[in-house]
């Protein structure tokens, strides 16, 4: 029962991560789930739903089909719809129900691909992992299918942004600010995976000199591009003025040397009784590094999501469940986290709100700040 969230919310699931990563790429995403569930993955978890068109559908799985394991209607509906809409690709992903009945998405995707002639892939999501896993799998698959080795390196200094979705960066202009900061730092943007770039732009990703990984969901894709094209990656988000300058320097150095770097983890983690930041590892680590650069104060990062040792500093703590989070909050002097964490934060620990779209959804969307390449208001926090 340790994984039970008794008080706090839960993070957006892997299914929504797939939908978010593929939203702007011109493909058709089909979730194998019961009728009526589409709003869970779109209107609740996707802030672009009302402003941008995207082909995201639910298969309307019935009880009889689940019991009998009948995939014929699913295949037929997808083939017919693809014939009408002509998507660039077809992605099929699963729900907890699909997992329980053992749906073979790779086999179904193979059949549909043969019938339609459209690139089709199955993604084995099941709602048991966070959005980071789903988005990571989706981006990695897109790169595998559409980024080929016949792309020449660009002559000018160029970069891809990998791992950008509204689930981490909302729609408050943060991603646009990252693009502007890159341009001001002398980089030409090849593609942004996956906000503001179409599939044609992403297919040129191999021409970039360096990749900027802005969330864990982009790490696997960056490693794939490194293996395929030799492109180094740098993990970090340009929060604050000082860390943004450091990150720009590290990007230029990586582009020249070909060596990857993780500046968001190159910091001294804070101790008990100090300032603590809660969130996705690259996002929270970058904010901690930015605070350290601007104030000289060490910050401890608590990560409740999937990550790797590469992205964390020594002393950072994983908090996979509510009990672990509450225990670590009690050791902190002050906490920066999504407002929905506040109920488990002790009264004698200062709490500073930093909403995270993937945790509290649209509840606090209007309060999510754009901290990209801007002076942090540390006097209000520390």
TrEMBL record:
Gene3D superfamilies: Nitrogenase molybdenum iron protein domain (3.40.50.1980). InterPro entries: Nase/OxRdtase_comp1 (IPR000510), NifE-like (IPR049939). Residues 28-249 form the Nitrogenase/oxidoreductase component domain. PANTHER family: NITROGENASE IRON-MOLYBDENUM COFACTOR BIOSYNTHESIS PROTEIN NIFE. This is Nitrogenase component 1. It comes from Clostridium aromativorans.
């Amino acid at each position: 029962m340790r994984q039970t969230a008794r008080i706090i919310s839960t993070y957006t699931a892997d299914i929504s991560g797939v939908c978010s990563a593929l939203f702007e790429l011109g493909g058709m995403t089909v979730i194998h789930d019961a009728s009526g569930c589409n709003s869970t993955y779109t209107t609740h978890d996707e802030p672009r739903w009302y402003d941008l068109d995207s082909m995201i559908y639910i298969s309307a799985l019935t009880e009889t089909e689940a019991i009998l394991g009948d995939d014929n209607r699913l295949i037929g509906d997808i083939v017919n719809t693809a014939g009408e809409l002509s998507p660039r690709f077809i992605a099929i992903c699963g729900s907890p129900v699909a997992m329980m009945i053992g749906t073979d998405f790779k086999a179904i995707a193979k059949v549909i691909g043969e019938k339609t002639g459209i690139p089709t892939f199955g993604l084995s999501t099941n709602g048991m992992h966070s959005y980071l896993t789903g988005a990571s799998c989706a981006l990695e698959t897109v790169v595998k299918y559409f980024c080929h080795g016949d792309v020449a390196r660009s002559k000018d200094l160029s970069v891809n942004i990998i791992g950008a979705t509204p689930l981490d960066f909302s729609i408050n202009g943060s991603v646009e600010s990252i693009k502007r900061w890159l341009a001001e730092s002398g980089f030409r943007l090849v593609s942004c995976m996956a906000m503001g770039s179409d599939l044609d732009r992403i297919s040129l990703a191999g021409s970039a000199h360096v990749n900027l990984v802005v969330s864990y969901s982009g790490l696997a894709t960056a490693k794939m591009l490194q293996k395929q094209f030799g492109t180094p990656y740098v993990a970090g988000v340009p929060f604050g003025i000082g860390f943004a300058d450091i990150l720009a320097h590290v990007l230029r150095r990586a582009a020249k040397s070909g060596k990857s770097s993780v500046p968001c983890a190159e910091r001294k983690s804070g101790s008990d009784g100090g300032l603590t930041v809660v969130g996705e590892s690259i996002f929270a680590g970058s904010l901690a590094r930015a605070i350290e650069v601007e104030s000289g104060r060490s910050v401890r990062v608590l990560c409740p999501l999937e990550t790797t040792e590469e992205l964390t500093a020594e002393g950072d703590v994983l908090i996979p469940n509510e009990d672990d989070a509450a225990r670590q909050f009690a050791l902190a002097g002050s906490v920066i986290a999504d407002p929905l964490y506040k109920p488990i934060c002790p009264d004698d620990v200062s709490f500073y709100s930093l909403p995270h779209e993937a945790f509290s959804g649209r509840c606090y969307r209007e309060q999510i700040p754009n901290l990209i390449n801007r002076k942090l208001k540390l006097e209000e926090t520390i």
